[in-house]
Amino acid sequence: MKTVRLYLRSMKMLMKCQLEYPFSFFLQTLAQLVMEGGEMMAVILIIDRFDRVNQWEAGDLFFFFGIMSVTFYLTECFGRGITGNFPYLIRTGQLDTILLRPRGVLTQVLCSAVDPRRITCIAVGTVSMVIGCNLARVQWTVLKVLAMAEAVLLGAVLILALFVIEAIFCIYSVKSVELVNALSYGGRSACEYPIDIYPRPLRILFTAIAPFALVLHVPAAYILGKPLYGWPEWTAFVCPLAGAVFFGLIYLAFQKAMRFYRSTGS
Amino acid sequence: MRSYLSAFRLRRKMELQYRGAMLGGIICQVVFGLILIALYRALYAGKPQALPLQHVVTYVWLQQAFFRMLLASDPDLLDKIRSGSIAYDLCRPLNLYGFYYARIMAQKITGSLMRAVPMLLFASLLPQGWGISLPASLPALLLSLLALMLGLLCVSALENITMAFTMRTLDPRGIQAMLNLLMMTLSGNILPLTLFPDSWQKVITLLPYAQLLDAPIRLYTGDVPVGEAWRILLIQAVWIAVLIALGVWLWNRHQKRIVLQGG
Amino acid sequence: MSYIHVDHLQKTFIVRKKRETGRLLREKETVFALRDLSFVIEKGELVGYIGPNGAGKSTTVKILSGILTPDSGNVSVDGRIPWESRREHVRNIGVVFGQRMQLWWDVPILDSYGLLKEIYRIPDADYRQRLKELTEALQLENLLRTPLRQLSLGQRMRAELCGSLLHRPGLLFLDEPTIGLDAVSKLALRDFLRWENREHGTTILLTTHDMEDIAALCSRVMVLGHGQKLYDGDLPALLEKYDTSRTVTVRFEDPETMPALPEEASLSREGDLVKVVYAPGQIPTPEILEKLQQAGTIREMTIQPQNIDVLIAAMYREMDL
Q: What is the dotted CATH code of the domain comprising C244-304?
């Protein structure tokens, strides 16, 4: 697909730029490693002190942490255009330049930035997942692999959608953008652990509103052999679609926001 | 002295301008707090600990409320360096170290107080087991406030040192990021230090990063009884002395350097 | 059917003023950017678009390019409504802003062009040919591997121009392209635009403050003031009609020279320069020049037309606005 080609080409060009200053890049990537390492260390220390939460044991917890990390940071790496660059595009008027080109707005926004420094965070997440799989003695099947791929992919879609909400706030000049951070970064922090340990309000928040639980936890629990709430196997493949539905709704709102942007100018 | 006050006032004015953002930030911080507490409650339900859950809850709220004090962030600085107007600062007839010290402290105090008060108010209204608890005793409260001040002095001195390095390298991202990182992990923000293994705690609580929030919080909750408070205050005082001395020395060296380079 | 058809265009902006101390809400001010603007441009024209700051020129260009929607009125460009068929419309236009760069900053401009090729889906052979043609005409061959940030302003403008024409748009909008350029670059740019217009029939709308740009390039000029079209015709007629003052600055061989001028002309001295301000309507320029030459040997002389803003002000006075 031509869109994919455009995206890949943009990524290649952007990465070439970023790697022009390898030392600075290395330092920042290292900093990310320490940061995410710190987060993982928290999980390790918690497991060290508490052993388990409800039915979830050490291996399960590592797996949940890992899959969330990998998904989130993959999105922040390749979706940086939306996750971090949008305010800059508006401020510098580059959004106008985007409107002057014959491609979709979100497509071009996605192509505008990349954050390869996240690679260490993704690595940490992967390590955590591997440790978790081993400790939990996961029996891998083709279906489970598919479930995981689907979870990560639709998880990325969900997270992108949350940042598109931020972009929409930006367009309408709403000052309290940090509210959305409660959903995106709060969601990440909360859903590093299985959703069913939390009280009802939080469960509803991250199942019905920002459906991290549906997209990541249901498949993860299925893979670990401890289905969430005891739900049947097919839910591991159907629930993640909530991420796509969520994205669809947000996309409609984004288009409306763009219509607004074009009526008020910069 | 007047110039330090004006730095304060300017900072407060700037922060007030971003009212909307601040409200969103407060809500975000509160949601984070609630999530963390929900997690610890679930953990404690499975395996109760010697350390009372309430202490952990209080710990989380105090960390979230004063979160702004942790981070080193001076967005102006980056622009100032780029535009070269930093040279004006260097020409001013002020004690440069003191000037930046006051500036850093002003940023931290104004940034956090305006958020901490509403947050703590909200936290105090929450039901038992979720909300912040009262201090262990009046002396405990007073001592924790003292420790907070000292911790603030300590971390500001630390940040002032990194600022000296920033002046030199002209790229604040790397060194500031490093400092932020260490602060985040070792200050008890990601995971309360009181939940770290005991052996680890012995070392980490000696480091300057733990002095800002972990130290005062322990006094507040009574984890460290009033009688033992002097240990904490002593560690803080030592670090303040060391970091200020180091900072002043570095700044003096840099000042000569920069003057020599001709700005 | 005209190429560009603008009919009764209207656009207002609501601007929030800075919050005053003590007030809770910001005051809102309505700015009438465009009022009942109408004009027609045929294919292949090279039109100048001038007016004082805030007249609405940029607003017009934004509406015509489809990134801004008007409050009322009709616009048709090549049979399309710009803001409704954004992608199809935008495929056929090129835009160059004088102040804002559209190419990527840190990347060799050739890489930027490669990405534009992808964005505009330009076929390989077409791209190669067009790139060759443009880089030759704009003398960019040696700069292709240089990132935009390392180029001088004149070079950047040329690079931008090339980028905006790679996809062979039928319509080109230029917003203050010569601003900040040195004299040589300005001339080169004007030559190029003339060539592009002649060679490929590209319709060009040139927004500028520089009257020399207009004089060199445009047979037709539209004047915009306070959101309204004040004039639409050729430049000489415009100058003749509204040009109420001209300034001639002379340096004589002998600094003490005092020319004998008619009463209506005002004479002043600045150092060793002699300044003559007169109204070409009252005293024809040749007469002034003759008198000056009679006064003594001239070492240097410049003739300045009126400032465009003063010209517009004169137009307003004439139209009782």
A: 3.30.70.250
